[in-house]
């Protein structure tokens, strides 16, 4: 699914507070409150029930995305529960479809938990796809970043960036308009299919902001990608670390934390530069939810407890993702100074904007519906 200094986080979280909160009024069960981030025995009945189930089925969790590899291995070692990992490269829409397709199944293809784009929150409720559950650290999750009834909750966020293979690209682009230059022919790619991928859709959204559009008007973003495609600069391939490293997609539009993870993993071979564009800086929140049809509901709840503990939040932060409980942890001095020192300068993210759920839903629908007829590039 990320910078130095408390002032940056205050500014970012102030921006996040502008996001409209999904309101509801029904109370839901919650875990017995524990000390923030600590398992003091209050969770033992849940731990025992989860161990009896023995398995947790996840989907769309690449190990290099927000440091999920460490999160999964730590969870397995901590609780002795097997993790069945489905399709690590699935999109948010595909995660939801996996729940729908396995409503009547308790088999290994039925996901227990999902991690999807913020805009998918209302759909989970409207279609009855999520199970309400409030983790023991619930009160430290900002109110605007969680459904009041516990059907979903924000987990982390980042900003859209350019990930550039410097062994191939001599002049590293600094803004969206640069990508239209002839020198980037056959070089620019998305990290997903914009018809179904939240990450790819947010790239189009960001391009719209940089091209005269607004949070309520994504059409300029589609027109931007039409120009990019007509110029021969757009590569209709879903970019991954491997395609980036081989030079097949030397400029990738993706979340900063994913780009930074690639940079760390590749260790200079090739050299990667991560650029926050000068304009069109958009931030994206992802959310967690438990499937209403989860074959292992207790393991799913325990997974959420782990992710929203201090331990889990720090694992995400190590992966470059800004965890949703960052502000609470900062106030309690629960974030190691060496980890804080690794975060990029705050001024790079001062221009970041956070769309509301309503704006995201409108943008997502417009991009999915109009990509083929406006851009005409079959990304796969």
From TrEMBL:
GO terms for biological process: thiamine transport. Gene3D superfamilies: Periplasmic binding protein-like II (3.40.190.10). One of its GO terms (cellular component) is outer membrane-bounded periplasmic space. GO terms for molecular function: thiamine binding; thiamine pyrophosphate binding. Residues 1-27 form the signal peptide. It holds the Pfam family SBP_bac_6. PROSITE patterns: PROKAR_LIPOPROTEIN. Keywords: Signal. SUPFAM superfamilies: Periplasmic binding protein-like II. PANTHER family: ABC TRANSPORTER SUBSTRATE-BINDING PROTEIN, THIAMINE-BINDING PERIPLASMIC PROTEIN-RELATED. This is ABC transporter substrate binding protein.
């Amino acid at each position: 699914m990320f910078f130095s200094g408390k002032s940056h986080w205050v500014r970012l979280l102030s921006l996040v507070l502008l996001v409209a909160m999904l309101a509801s009024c029904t109370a839901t069960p919650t875990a017995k409150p524990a000390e923030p981030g600590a398992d003091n025995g209050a969770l033992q009945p849940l731990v025992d029930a989860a161990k009896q189930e023995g398995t947790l089925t996840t989907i769309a969790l690449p190990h290099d995305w927000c440091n999920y590899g460490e999160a999964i291995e730590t969870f397995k070692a901590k609780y002795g529960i097997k993790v069945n990992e489905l399709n690590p490269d699935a999109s948010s829409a595909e995660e939801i479809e996996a729940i729908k397709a396995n409503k009547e199944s308790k088999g290994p293809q039925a996901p227990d938990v999902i991690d999807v784009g913020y805009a998918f929150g209302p759909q989970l409720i409207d279609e009855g796809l999520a199970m309400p559950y409030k983790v023991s650290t619930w009160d430290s999750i900002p109110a605007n970043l969680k459904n009041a009834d516990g059907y979903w909750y924000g987990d982390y966020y980042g900003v859209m960036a350019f990930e550039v293979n410097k062994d191939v690209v001599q002049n590293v682009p600094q803004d969206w308009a640069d990508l239209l230059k002839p020198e980037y022919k056959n070089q620019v790619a998305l990290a997903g299919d914009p018809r179904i991928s939240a990450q790819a859709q947010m790239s189009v959204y960001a391009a719209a902001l940089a091209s005269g559009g607004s949070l309520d008007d994504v059409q300029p973003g589609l027109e931007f990608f039409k120009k990019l495609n007509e110029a021969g600069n757009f590569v209709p391939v879903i970019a991954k670390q491997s395609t980036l490293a081989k030079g097949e997609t030397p400029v990738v539009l993706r979340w900063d934390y994913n780009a930074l993870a690639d940079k760390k993993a590749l260790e200079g071979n090739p050299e990667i530069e991560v650029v926050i564009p000068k304009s069109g800086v958009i931030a994206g929140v992802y959310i967690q939810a438990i499937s209403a049809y989860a074959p292992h509901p207790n393991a799913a709840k325990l997974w959420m407890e782990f992710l929203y503990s201090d331990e889990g939040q720090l694992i995400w932060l190590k992966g470059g993702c800004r965890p949703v409980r960052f502000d609470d942890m900062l106030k309690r001095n629960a974030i190691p100074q060496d980890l804080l020192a690794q975060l990029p300068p705050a001024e790079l993210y001062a221009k970041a904007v956070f769309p509301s759920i309503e704006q995201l839903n409108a943008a997502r629908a417009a991009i999915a519906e109009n990509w083929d007829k406006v851009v005409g590039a079959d990304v796969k």
